[in-house]
Specification:
single chain, 529 residues, alpha/beta, 7-stranded mixed β-sheet, 4-stranded antiparallel β-sheet, 13 helices, 35% helix, 15% strand, globular
Amino acid sequence: MIRKFDFLIIGGGVAGMSFALKVAKSGKGKVALVCKTTLDEANTAKAQGGIASVTNLKVDNFEKHIEDTMIAGDYISDIKAVEHVVRNAPAAIDDLVKWGVNFDKNENGEFDLHREGGHSEFRILHHADDTGFEIQRGLMQAVRRNKKITVLENHYAVEIITQHHMGIEVTRKSKDIECYGAYILDPDTKKVDTFLSRVTLMATGGTGAVYATTSNPNIATGDGIAMVYRAKGTVKDMEFVQFHPTVLYNPAETHPAYLITEAMRGYGGILRLPNGEEFMQKYDKRLSLAPRDIVARAIDREMKIHGINHVCLDVTHKDPEETKHHFPNIYAKCKSIGIDITKDYIPVCPSAHYMCGGIKVDLNGESSIHRLYAVGECSCTGLHGGNRLASNSLIEAVVYAKSAAEHCIQVIDNYKFNDEIPEWNDEGTMTNEENVLIEQDKREVGQVMSNYVGIVRSDLRLHRAWKRLDLLYEETEELFKRVKPTKDICELRNMINVGYLITRQAIERKESRGLHYTIDYPKHAYDQK
């Protein structure tokens, strides 16, 4: 079946929904928002801490936020992207409020601002300790009320459509690659339909599920990044995987591991060994409020030195009622497994959390493939550089969704539907009966990535990962050609592609920088000369 939409949005988090609301308002055509599960299962909903924006001009300013971002990113960040996000952040907050998102306020009616690791000022807007959930709730209501937006839940994008599908050779050197839509799997018919579009947006979120333990939901398999890479689009900075230093240590939960927000350390939480000893003074003068890469490596090292599987976060010295007021969900979650955070230490360990790299885009959110935009965690705007500053991700998604929407509204009239695109051909394929192999291979990808491409790396580990992933790639591609597409096998393909990209780009970076730390090159490249 062939379906036509002027704007095709793949992904239903804050990035995809913000863009949908903007383009729907333009009246430039039909809008489809496709997500592979339901709208409320996006990565956005898992973000606890908050969203960063300069709002208290009495003590804060754009220059401070820009400098904090550059420092956290190890000066790899694109200064133009940083300025773009920071200076447009207040307007993005206004948009969220207009769409129905609520942020906590103090007794004076002003935003109740938090401070998080790496920030020099209090500039984190939040809604208790479930800010992402509140943003997702507000945007979902706005999207579902908008009759101009067609929401297609439980639909899975298999590939984006380019000239390649018309029999034209496309390589990484091709400068005129265009996106004409996507092939999308319908859960009811089990058929792959052809979705033609004039503009396509990737907003498919992150890659955490390629690791054995992650704060991301199971759906974070890097689909958009993998699809664009296979279509010969530019993918950048994949070696910079952010491991959140503090997820709740609970062996019963690995996907997703429960996040203990950075805001808890901003609130005054202290990292300790299980015996109560502090250790961050050995690693950074900012102690528990150091940037995430430093804290994650410090915890990883302490765990290895002492042979333990977690460290602890201590808020027992804080007022119990205030703690429960600020972190009601964390309090309830920990209480459910026998931990009273007002009296007991919280067992924590690092976990795969955020991808700083992704589909390379310009200031308009446009990728190297014409008519294809990317926003949110699947994109690489240049904002994060070597390491994401806490709470910069949600604001980046809203700012770039607006930039991408404004740009494509201006140019969409130049684009036509390509009616020469062939429908998906699965002739000669069979229904896959080997799901047990797919699930096993997914687990193997997670183990390979966690063991060899984790917080601390080496050339030996990276090359070992490369060999394992190469074997999995050959086996999976052979199976994919023989069977009808399913969500499971498509996710496995994407996980292997993403694992390969992280590993390859980690091998290519011959230095330790930002989130990429290797024992073979423990210093910056310019320090080694």
